[in-house]
Amino acid sequence: MKTHRFKRPLLTGLALLPAVLLLVVLSIWQSLNMLATDLKQQLSPRLPEAIVEASVNLYELDDLNNFLVQHINRDLNHLPASGILSPITSCRAQVQQLRGRPYFQISTQHQTTKRNIQLDWPSGDQQESLGLQLDCNINWATAAGVPTLLSVLALILVTLVLPPMRAEQRHIFNRLAAHSGHRQALALLKQQQLYDPSQQAALSLLLEDSKTDPVDALRSVSGRQLSAPDALDWLQCGLRLYPEQLSQALAIAESEATLRFAPDEQRLWIHGTEIKLPATPYFYYLWYAGKRLARDEADGWFVNPPSNKPDFPAAGDLMALMANHNGHQKAINDLQEKGLRAKTLDQNRSKIKEVLVATLGEKLAAPYLFDMERDARTARSKYRLATPAEKIHISS
Amino acid sequence: MLKLPILSPNLWIYALVIATLSSLPIAGSLLLSRQQFAPITLSNYQSYRCQTGGEADATFNVLTLTALKAKEFADRLCANPVLGQYYGEVAISWHPRAFLQIEHLLNGQYQLFWNRRHIVAGLTPEAQTYYLPIVDSPRYTMYWASYKQAPEITPEYLADKRIGFSEDHQSMSFYLRPMAALAAAGIELNSEQKRFYPGPKALMDAFYRGDIDLVTSGGDSMQAATDRKLYFTLMDKNVPSGTWYLQRNQFHPGLACELSKTLRLFDSLFEQGHSTPTFEGSCP
């Protein structure tokens, strides 16, 4: 984690290395040029004047030229440059030619760091000239160090400023910052950016409740599989049913879309959410579920019995189901005496729908309610559980 | 308290901040590389010093008008034991003729100097109170020189000729004498016929190049400096050159003799003749 944190600035730094090198070269180049200009400015017209005055009343200048060159070289042998943090410490200027006569110095350094300066002055209607070569000492520590240091400093300052955030991120950030402070908010936000869109949406949903601890929210969402299209709806449902129990709500959102019965305990779960049904409607629900699981030619459909002729065999199935799992005696007796009537079926189905809709809401409950059709043969209504067999589990 | 890191409110501000921060290293580096040199001092190119090795403190200051043989002269004086008795150092400077001022004479800045008698007298009639002449430089003969044909100082000959002069109006050879010669012949030249040059070398170079037709000359020795044949016409015979003056209070025993001996070094600068001592007493 720590190495990752330094990785990005380090890579940026390496990418900027050519730019820093260019800056070093540029600053040395500018130094050299400015010093050359300054030398020319300081020496002109002083030096030509001094040369002309010393050349007074002569027919021949060779001896004097040698004398002058010696003195000029001595005068310009050590020229300190201004600035402690500047690339060049001092320079030396030596005469290359005087009045057309060469006075070369053999040097071992490369030519790019040298500068040539020429001073011209009139003599009668002719021109005379002095050629100097400026040779400077570069303090590589400051020449390279200062631009590098300044660049590093700028880089550090740049990392202290962040690009603008998108609106939804800003919203999350503000919540996080209000709760856990600026620095932590940013760290958490960075984590949050690693979440997939469904997770981020879930997080936003969780944070809609101002009482929610954003850090808790972040942690709970981490790693959750929420890509199903209705996951957010289920999350909302879960939050409604289990307020402030983020894990529970998220577990519901993550659950498979199944209808699960535990008949021994008279419990049922839809999409991970426990539904509390009274005993009798529970068994009728279980019975319809069983019909779908049978996977026979009825395909889960059960035609309502005619009002004058209750269905006794079906009643027997139901009675057995209830007896095995501690159903209400009254309901069992009712079935035994009167058989399975359409009215009872309708009543129970109604109850189931009422509870499911009250608990899950219409949209989420819909796949677990009942389909209705008119039976072609008998012209009576037939009903079946809307949930397909593969999504129904009954644990024994 | 500033909360770090800072969040930019919008993209423009972010871009501006990044741009500003990025430009800081550039601006800083370039600012620091605006370098200059500390003020450069140049030594005096018109003087030369040497030590005599003697114990005395005093400096023997010489004023001459050219660098020619100046170093040699000073070195000879430094090596001279008589001089070493009275002086610890010899300093020789060279300046144009017009450099000498009355203050130099009154203040005794130079112990030995060379100049024309009439100039020294012109500075102050009391000159002899402070300085006495010890050596006269050799007299010399002056000629007009030309490449084309023997020069004549006549209006017809000079009608289409250009003559070269020195810019130094105190120069005997290259200004005063030739000007006087022309005036004596009643010749007036227009401004295009008179060319002026800063010194003898520039004047001679112009003549050899052909920029001027006529120039004054010391005589045959000039022929050695050029391949083409030169024609000479006499201008003046026996022209006085100048005089060496020694400060009156520096007439230590034997000093004037040693100086006059050493001053013969400069005789070779003149075509002919020797320098003549002008002080009283004889030398060994």
The string of secondary-structure elements of chain A, in order, is HHHEEEEEHEHHHHHHEEEHEHHHHEEE
Can you count the helices of chain A? 15
Average per-residue pLDDT of chain B, rounded, comes to 89
> What form of chain A results from the Cα inertia axes?
rod-shaped
| Total of domains of chain B | 2
> What is the structural class of chain B?
alpha/beta
Fourth CATH level, the homologous superfamily of the largest domain in chain B? Cypl, domain I
* DSSP, total strands of chain B: 13
Please, what is the average pLDDT of chain A?
88
* Spatial order of the strands forming the largest sheet of chain B: 2-4-3-5-12-6-13
The number of strands of chain A is 13
Helix % of chain A is 40-55%
Keywords (chain A): Membrane, Transmembrane, Transmembrane helix
Transmembrane segments (chain A): 140-162
Keywords (chain B): Membrane, Transmembrane, Transmembrane helix
Transmembrane segments (chain B): 12-32
Describe this structure in words.
The complex is a heterodimer of chains A (396) and B (284). Chain A has 396 residues and is α+β, with helices and mostly antiparallel strands. Chain A is 53% helix and 17% strand. Chain A is built from 15 helices and 13 strands. In chain A, the strands form 3 sheets. In chain A, strands 1, 2, 3, 4 and 5 form a 5-stranded antiparallel beta sheet that branches. Chain A is rod-shaped. The N and C termini of chain B lie far apart (99 Å). The mean pLDDT of chain B is 89. By secondary structure, chain B is an alpha/beta fold. In chain B, strands 2-4-3-5-12-6-13 form a 7-stranded mixed beta sheet. Chain B has a 3-stranded antiparallel beta sheet with strand order 10-7-11. In chain B, 32% of the residues lie in helices and 22% in strands. At the A-B interface, helix 1, helix 2, helix 3, strand 1 and helix 4 of A face strand 1, helix 1 and helix 9 of B. Strand 6 of chain A pairs parallel with strand 1 (6-7) of chain B.
